[in-house]
Amino acid sequence: MNELQTCFERRAPEGSELPILITPAEAGEPLLDAFPRLRAQIERHLATVGGVLLRGFGVPSLEAFREFAAAFGHPLLNYEFGSTPRTAVGGGVYTSTEYPAHQPIPLHNEQAYTREWPMKLWLHCVTAASEGGETPIADSRAVYRRMPAAIRERFAPGILYVRNYGDFDVPWQKVFNTESRAEVEAFCRRAGIRWEWKPDGELRTSQLCQAIEVHPVSGETLWFNQAHLFHVSNLQPEVRESLEELLGIENVPRNTYFADGSPIPDAIFDEVRAVLDAETVSFRWQEGDVLMLDNMLAAHARAPFKGARKVVVAMAEPHGNLDRF
The TauD/TfdA-like domain covers which part of the protein (predicted)? Predict the structure, then answer.
């Protein structure tokens, strides 16, 4: 075991292998040079464990990171129908979610609030925070197994996501990357999203999406949704109270409901979040790290941090279930 492996520390539930650590033949070996040797190993671990951490390799630029991600053979995806602010770096590489440093981002599978999502996800630590800033991960299969049976049964028909765009959330123009209402409507029509233009010119959408999904390759059943992240219980209590009083519950920026449109009690999400916490794997970033995830097998999050932090992301291999609902 080399020095890089012995200094890798993580907090993880019993039995978890996430993430598999892969280190270079010699310190600083360029990641692109190592790719031909490592590809089969990476893909094997990705398919079984769900995530690998490449540590100690040379990643001299964002372009080198982009080339590594693209080398797996799938065009890198644009960030469409986004739910959080982020900035395009170029060539399919984006900043990670630009939320204030003191706010945590809960565990989630990328774009699991839609019916189309990337299968592959890469995160590259350009600058590690001086304190905090981890990207916790979790096995979506283990989350499903640990989730109380009553919740799995109640969520099985799907989750209804309702979004109100505007001053209190990401504007629809940024979410849909257009100023054209006609283009928004065309996107929604294709994606199975209901839309409504409100009297003030703002947009409301609703979409029934999966809560539980089956991996298209392994056939394993997964917890795969962002219901807990979009539900009003994810807001700080004083923010939630203010928004509900000002806007009414039907106009809060985002919320989730059972498939039949009925409200989901906060207590259910207390249980969901407890399961996610129990399955969380956490480790400290080192500058130069590249974390590659199967986006269905592994969820990810972001811990609060202090100091400068820069993590960029790339996505590839679209998959979905547009024909289901």
Answer: 36-314
